[in-house]
Target: ABC transporter ATP-binding protein
Amino acid sequence: MSTSIDTGADPTTLGLEVQGVTHEFTRHGNTMTVCENIEFDVRPGEFLSIVGPSGCGKTTLLRIVGGLIKATSGTVMIGDEPVTGPGPDRGFVFQQDSLFPWRTLTANVRFGLEAQGARGMRGDLSRGEWRKESEARAQAAIELVGLKDFANHYPHELSGGMRQRANLARALAIGPRVLLMDEPFSALDAQTREIMQSELLRIWRQNATTVLFITHQIDEAVYLSDRVVVMSARPGRVRDVVDVDLPRPRDLHVKRTPEFVTYTDRIWRQIEQEARQAAMTSTSGG
Ligand SMILES: Nc1ncnc2c1ncn2[C@@H]1O[C@H](COP(=O)(O)OP(=O)(O)OP(=O)(O)O)[C@@H](O)[C@H]1O
Model:
């Protein structure tokens, strides 16, 4: 079911495929392999999370998918197109909010659209028509994330949860086919975080976007996702892909069901094992 609010976005959602991605960083002459031969796909409209021990390359992988850094080897496909750099088909939401303090919420949400307009990506629309279109898309995105009454507020007048809603609105306003989220709720208190998780599911249902989500929290990954990719310790590899077969729509009570606990236990055991092995390797000088 989709009751999509019209953000003016291209309604076609795309999947993505990570094909044999390996990434190395070289620092002071030392080369470190961060992730190795990563393969997985995210189906169109799917919500997929990545979890793994700290430092296993989750953020690096997301930045590669976003086209912010180029993989040492391997390819990322969005639909049928290889990723060669950032593009308006991908929206980002990061852990730290990235709102401009001198802009109102509406002006912040319009920012990406203004940038598209300035780059001549207006389709057949004139400059004036694009301005109107941007305004309408921004308003729709702000309404979608539940901030209609705060459209003229500045970031410092918003709570942490509201700022993350605003970041989400900004990412959605450009009409991304894939949404890339890097621990977007980790700076929030536990209660706000839970509210934001269920809000994200509501927004995802309405907007029908493909989501690639990174988190440290296993219960967050299970609650939100259709599938969870579990990565090994560095160099990160895909250790497991867990199909989360819990009915949707999900409310927060699902977290207290035995099925939910079975999923979180399965993932938890694997990450614990990885973290222990990594700790033993580092203490034995390996
Ligand atoms: N620009 C860089 N130059 C050199 N090393 C880097 C760079 N970016 C990340 N690294 C290193 O790559 C490794 C993986 O980092 P990354 O942030 O991708 O891991 P992560 O799984 O997201 O970690 P966490 O869960 O702690 O956020 C880390 O050891 C980090 O220090």
